[in-house]
Amino acid sequence: MIKSAFLVIYNLQKVTIRKNFLGQDMLYYFYETFNINIFSYITFRAGFAFLLSFVLTTIFIPIFIKWAKSKNAMQPIYNFAPLAHKKKQNTPTMGGLIFTASSLIGVCASADLQNNFVLIAIVCLLSFGLIGFYDDIRKILFTSNEKGLSSRAKFALQFIFAGLVSGLLFLAEFPTNLYLPMLKAPIVNMGIWAIIFWSFVIVASSNATNLTDGLDGLATVPSIFAFLSLAVFMYISGHAILA
User: 92 pairs with which residues across the strands?
Assistant: First the structure.
């Protein structure tokens, strides 16, 4: 039944794409209309997406902070957190809304929306963002970190969404070979077991910053380094020559 559900979702997605409902992104339009070759470069498109998201975040974060303070949407601090973290008690929370929206706009402006993998990545972003939003809104309403999603509930939802995303990747015929850095040949073809492996990778990556600095629920700096590292690995692994 689960496989049938995946097939229905995937086939609907293919039909939508083939009908050009989403169309191509802005940079592809400029490339095809004005024949400006720079718009076809992955490095330029990635840089454009980053700059657009950065500018949007810079513009809207101050506005969001003012709104969050007016609504008393502050980050509660765990009772067992160090005293040095208590000064962050009234830091506005739910900033992930701005980061997610800005990232989504950057992707829609620069990535190929007719690519199945791009759409699956968007599904992953929105689904995990929804978990974070629900967790934050509960903490705010009850003014307590303990009132957010429990660890079990959070991990359960993450694995459900990660399994959905991994299943879509498998149905989209994403390569299931497992490579190790510095080795050209794959060490094993995981086959359908790749769904489980990918799910663990997605969940582990999304929780990496929490394990680094999650006592107060604020992990901006670790997130920056994590995103930069992931960006480097994604670029190299997706480059025809460097990979």
Answer: 74
- Best CA proximity match to 120, nearest among 170, 160, 156: 170
State both tokens at 108: 């829609």
Token readout for 105 is 């706009």
In whole angstroms, give the CA distance from residue 118 to residue 220. 25
Whole-angstrom distance, CA of residue 219 vs CA of residue 242: 31
Q: Could you give the CA distance from residue 199 to residue 41 in angstroms, rounded to a whole number?
A: 30
The whole-angstrom distance between residue 150's C-alpha and the CA centroid of its chain comes to: 21
Specify the 3-state DSSP secondary structure of 188.
Answer: strand
| HSE-up of residue 222 (Cα within 13 Å, Cβ side) | 14
The whole-angstrom separation of Cα 126 and Cα 82 is 32
* Rounded Cα distance, 99 and 78, in Å: 24
Place 10 in a pLDDT band, splitting at 50, 70 and 90: very low
Per residue in 20-44, pLDDT (tens digit) is 334 455 666 665 656 667 777 777 8
Contact between 39 and 45 (Cβ < 8 Å): yes
Could you tell me the residue ranges of all domains in the chain? Answer: 2-175
Chain segment 114-134, per-residue pLDDT in tens: 888 889 999 999 999 999 888
DSSP letter (8 states) at residue 173? T
